[in-house]
Design brief:
The chain contains 17 helices and 17 strands. By secondary structure, it is an alpha/beta fold. The protein has 3 domains: about 55 residues, Electron transport complex subunit B, putative Fe-S cluster (3-methyladenine DNA Glycosylase II, Chain A, domain 3), CATH 1.10.15.40; about 250 residues, Dihydropteroate synthase-like (TIM Barrel, Alpha-Beta Barrel); about 120 residues, Rossmann fold (3-Layer(aba) Sandwich). Helix 13 crosses helix 17. It is globular. About 40% of the residues are buried. The mean pLDDT is about 95.
């Protein structure tokens, strides 16, 4: 049962009452914030270990949060607290995997690697690519070689096999990659749990239905293993959908921690070699509620809509996506080339920079601190004003750029006179209202 604020307050050390080292004015204020999930109990440096464990367990999210290795990077799974994004926000975005199969020829697997690894681009400041390589054992003797090939791609690795000998050999070969070991079932769970625990790996739990999955998780937890991901690997779309939804509802609505784990969904198995169906199902399970989705391969046709959906779904609407403030030379722009200025709203930056790059005209794009809002919104809020623009130009731009031509966004043409008064050495121009007209404007300016 979750502890209330007063319960947590009673457990806090009285010898250091209201010391403020946690960042809150009183112990009661801190306790109430911890109970509400707004602060970590570890912020109090004086809590004893046994009390810390008790409070941490009580205040932890109903779904366990896992850290997985993605090559040189790390990713997060789970930790969710709500069923619907509008209730609060989602925490850990869905991650994607492409697959290498032992039953495929070397040429077929190489073709999948070449096509899938090529999908790697940035959208609004986020890297879009398949974070995992899934290795599936269908052919004796190729599993370890494929595992090594997957680990060399500098991504996360998922090893799917029910054979303990194959699993041990593959884990030993790529143990530094910290793969997800997906293979525990009712017949082998003890051996697989020991292998995963000994090597600090996340263990994939496999069962054909919810009842067997629940029983198997309970057995693994009794063995002391709570580093789990629940694998939905069925050829029936209806059953797979029901399983992911019921697992999430049991964890978040019923507070049943036995199902409080992330899920791994085998989309490739559900789609049966139909890439259009695979993309559609990947979109479905991104929304409801796959933590990792296994695809046969990642193509641009799949990635562009799928990653766009994920980014929209997992972006916190209360926190604007911001581009770092600074000077961005485009088309080999130099210190003598004209300067276009706009706000730090990430979408504005990527749209405007894309059009400027398309023009082919050398220039400098200046990103001013506007609170992460769009041009009109930040202007209306007083965050993108003549004063803020002049301060940014004077302090950040003039020491680095010799050009004295500044182009304002067309939607804030009203600022032209004020900016000219504050920057008398600059030639102030007004650009187009819409980004689509930037190419023509830039070419005419350079002519």
């Amino acid at each position: 049962m979750a502890l209330k604020g007063l319960d947590i307050f009673k457990l806090l050390p009285k010898a250091h009452a209201n010391c403020k080292e946690c960042g809150f004015p009183t112990c009661m204020a801190f306790a109430m914030k911890v109970a509400a999930g707004g602060a970590e109990i570890t912020k109090c440096p004086h809590v004893e270990a046994d009390v810390l464990d008790k409070i941490a367990e009580s205040t932890a999210p109903p779904m366990k949060s896992l850290t997985v290795k993605l090559g040189a990077d790390e990713g997060k799974l789970g930790g969710e607290t709500v069923l619907f994004r509008h209730e609060k926000t989602y925490v850990s975005k869905t991650l994607y995997a492409f697959s290498l199969y032992g039953c495929n020829s070397d040429e077929e697997n190489e073709a999948v690697i070449k096509e899938s690894a090529a999908v790697d681009y940035a959208r609004i400041g986020e890297r879009m690519y398949a974070e995992f390589v899934h290795v599936c054992e269908h052919h004796e003797g190729k599993f370890v070689d494929l595992a090594k090939k997957a680990a060399a791609l500098n991504r996360g690795v998922i090893l799917s096999t029910f054979k303990i000998d194959e699993a041990k050999a593959a884990v030993e070969a790529i143990k530094d990659a910290k793969p997800i070991l997906n293979g525990a079932n009712k017949d082998n769970y003890e051996e697989f749990s020991k292998l995963a625990t000994d090597n600090g790996l996340v263990l994939g739990v496999n069962a054909p239905n919810l009842e067997e999955m629940y029983d198997l998780v309970e057995k693994l937890e009794k063995l002391g293993n709570k580093n789990l991901i629940l694998t939905v690997d069925t050829h029936d779309i209806k059953t797979a959908f029901e399983m992911t939804v019921q697992i999430r509802r049991a964890a978040l609505l019923n507070k049943d921690r036995t199902f409080g784990y992330p899920t791994l969904v085998n989309i490739a198995g559900l789609a049966k070699d139909d890439l259009d169906m695979e993309a559609a199902l990947a979109a479905l399970f991104t929304v409801k509620y796959g933590s990792i989705l296994i695809l046969s391969k990642m193509t641009y046709a799949t990635s562009l809509p799928l990653h766009g959906l994920r980014q929209n779904l997992y972006t916190d609407p209360q926190k604007p996506m911001r581009q770092e403030v600074g000077i961005y030379p485009l088309n080999k722009g130099g210190e003598n080339d004209p300067c276009y200025i706009t706000v730090d709203f990430a979408l504005t930056y990527f749209v405007v920079s894309g059009e400027l790059e398309r023009s082919g005209v050398p220039c400098n794009l200046l990103i001013c601190d506007a609170g992460g809002y769009s041009v009109l919104t930040s202007w209306a809020a007083g965050k993108f004003s003549a004063s803020t623009i002049a301060k940014f130009i004077t302090e950040e731009v003039e020491p680095k750029v010799k050009s004295r031509t500044l182009i304002l966004p067309g939607k804030v043409a009203v600022l032209k006179g004020e900016v000219e008064a504050k920057l008398p050495d600059w030639k102030i121009l007004v650009g187009p209202n819409e980004a689509v007209a930037v190419v023509k404007f830039a070419k005419e300016l350079a002519a």
